[in-house]
Design a protein that fits this description.
13 helices, Heat Shock Protein 90, Helix Hairpins, 614 residues, five-stranded mixed β-sheet, four-stranded antiparallel β-sheet, elongated, 17 strands, alpha+beta
Length: 614
């Protein structure tokens, strides 16, 4: 046989190229995903850091604004600046409006950042009322002449507690807070002023009445605002509204009384408000530190942190990506080569001539090794089947040659006139023809069973009648051999089977048992029910089968004694036909034997329900 020319595999379809391509693609995706994740994570972290830095900046401004609101100058602020710098890690510097240094957390001589971060002016910027924001107005911590005395605080505390108890009797829960000036304020559960609804019994007005200290400061405020009010054409005796807007309560500027500003006189109201604000700033100015410039820095640069892809960083990223790709390709090449080598060996073995039955070495225990084992098993089965095929052809030729040789020989001598064609000769020729017919019929049945074309006519069959029919058919042969033939049935089991084919299978077993049982022996046909199966047995008291021969009894043309002829040992097809007919019924055939004691052949077949009229 000419060896088939090996087809050249295109480069793009080779397994090694595919594995390398897949590895490179995975590596590229991994590098890209890692880079994206790193950039995203870094960006998020920098944003969070910037947010934290902004919050720290606002906290620094609020702390220094509070210092300016409670001190008449900046003396002693250096300690506060150093504490804030140590906590936030930022450089903090305070200068006057003319850049005169007031306090600095950096060593002397360190240059200031190019621009000021904020202006510290508690009279115009409120960093206290709303955290993290800079509102226009006066910082509530600027109390000045509105700060209550200890006695006034004590009296107002008593009034506040009394009102709190009054609110509680009406189901209004409040908490007591205190303004920077010392005035107690009732707040609701959400922290707002508890003045939206005041029961009549609690509305005595004492908690909202200015104290002596506050009234004195308001009188001074009124006097300071008078010149401005006169210039605006307003009454210098403009009454001030006392309540949530009073200085020292919530830190917002005082407002004119609502009754003073009539409907449609919004312009007059704004003018009066501007006069009061200017007068209040002038009144509080001696109690606060001068306006200062706040400089913030983050080390030498003083700039906010940001992620910069410098050329050095780009080189590192590209180098790392290239290294990952190189390692991936190298590892993939090694792994792919180890994977491809066994496959190439399999390909070479598969392209060998069929009669060589080539094997491949199994060097691994992975999927490739399992494939190699399966290939070797397949080659072994092919070799065994080839041997069986050759043996089958030889056995068939042997089985057909003997009767054909006899028929030819008798016919030739009869033709030559050496023997007269009497009845005895014709009987012998007829016997040889019957042998040929049996072998041909057996081979036809086996071929039909192998092709799945064996036709079965199934019907409910009583097992006792089936055994009786088989025993009756072989009674004469058993009696001639001096063998007792018996049947034993446990109950009345019914089979779902083709009675003709089943009689053929049991007949082969009985004929085989009678042939191998000596005189005075016994062959017993049995039937019993076992769950959803019917067990048919053919037991004999013959010579038995050796342990090494027992696994081969259902093979075609097999005989325990190779020296036996087809006349004494059968054709060697009876038991294979039994197995095929049983398998066609959905059952199994088994054999058990003890040399010198006998053999038992067992058929397990599906059970059937008895007919309704049976």
């Amino acid at each position: 046989m000419t060896r088939r020319t090996r087809a050249r595999i295109p480069l793009r379809k080779r397994l090694l190229v595919r594995l390398l391509s897949a590895s490179v693609l995975i590596a590229v995706c991994s590098v890209a995903a890692t880079a994206w994740l790193a950039v995203t994570t870094t960006t998020r972290a920098l944003r969070e850091e910037q947010g934290q830095a902004l919050a720290d900046d606002m906290d620094i401004l609020a702390r220094l604004s509070g210092y300016a609101a409670t001190h008449p100058d900046w003396t002693g602020v250096q300690r506060t600046v150093r504490d804030l710098s140590a906590r936030t890690g930022r450089r903090i510097a305070l200068t006057g409006a003319d850049r005169t240094p007031l306090a600095d957390s950096a060593p002397k001589g360190t240059s200031l950042p190019p621009r000021a971060a904020a202006t510290v002016d508690p009279l115009r910027t409120d960093t206290y009322t709303e955290r993290g924001a800079q509102l226009s107005g006066t910082d509530p911590r600027v109390v000045g002449p509105y700060r209550l005395t200890a006695l006034e605080r004590h009296k107002l505390d008593a009034v506040a507690h009394e009102r709190q108890r009054c609110f509680s009797r009406y189901g209004i829960e409040t908490t007591l807070t205190r303004t920077p000036g010392g005035r107690p304020v009732l707040a609701d559960a959400d922290g707002g002023a508890a003045t939206d609804y005041v029961p009549d019994a609690c509305a005595d007005g004492r908690l909202d009445t200015p104290t002596r200290t506050e009234q004195k400061a308001l009188t001074v405020l009124q006097a300071r605002a008078a010149p401005c009010l006169v210039r605006e054409g307003l009454d210098p005796a403009l009454p001030l509204y006392f309540g949530p807007g009073i200085p020292g309560v919530n830190g917002r500027d005082a407002t004119p009384a609502p009754a003073f500003v009539k409907v449609g006189e919004a312009k007059r109201g704004r003018a009066a408000q501007a006069c009061l604000e200017e007068a209040r700033r002038a009144q509080l100015d001696p109690y606060v530190a001068p306006v200062a410039e706040l400089f913030l820095g983050g080390g030498d640069s003083g700039a906010a942190p940001r992620w910069d892809m410098s050329p050095a960083n780009k080189t590192k990223v590209i180098g790392a990506a290239g290294l990952v790709l190189a390692v991936t390709v190298a590892v993939s090449a090694v792994v792919a080569t180890r994977l491809v080598q066994p496959l190439r060996a399999l390909t070479e073995a598969a392209q060998q001539p069929p009669d060589r039955h080539a094997r491949v070495p199994v060097t691994t225990r992975d999927e490739t090794g399992i494939l190699a084992e399966a290939f070797n098993d397949l080659a072994e089965r092919r070799e065994r089947l080839e041997a069986q095929r050759k043996a089958l052809v030889s056995d068939v030729a042997h089985e057909l040659r003997s009767p054909l040789t006899n028929i030819r020989g008798w016919l030739e001598v009869t033709r030559d006139g050496l023997v007269e064609p009497d009845a005895e000769l014709l009987g012998a020729l007829h016997e040889e023809a019957l042998v040929l017919q049996r072998v041909i019929d057996d081979l036809r049945d086996l071929a039909a069973a192998d092709a799945g074309a064996l036709l079965l006519t199934r019907e409910p069959v009583p097992a006792d009648e089936l055994l009786a029919q088989v025993a009756a058919a072989h009674r004469v042969a058993a009696d001639a051999a001096g063998v007792a033939l018996r049947t034993e049935t446990d109950g009345v089991p019914w089979l779902d089977a083709d009675p003709v084919r089943l009689r053929q299978a049991l007949g082969n077993l009985v004929a085989n048992a009678v042939r191998h049982t000596p005189a005075d022996g016994t062959v017993t046909l049995g039937a019993r029910e076992d769950g959803e199966e019917i067990v048919l047995t053919v037991a004999d008291t013959g010579t038995g089968i050796s342990d090494e021969d027992l696994p081969h009894v259902f093979e075609r043309f097999w005989r325990a004694e190779k020296s036996r002829s087809r006349r004494t040992g059968g054709s060697g097809l009876g038991l294979p036909i039994v197995r095929q007919l049983t398998a066609a019924h959905g059952g199994t055939a088994e054999a058990a034997s003890t040399p010198g004691v006998g053999s038992v052949f067992t058929l397990r077949l599906p059970a059937a329900s008895p007919p309704a009229d049976g």
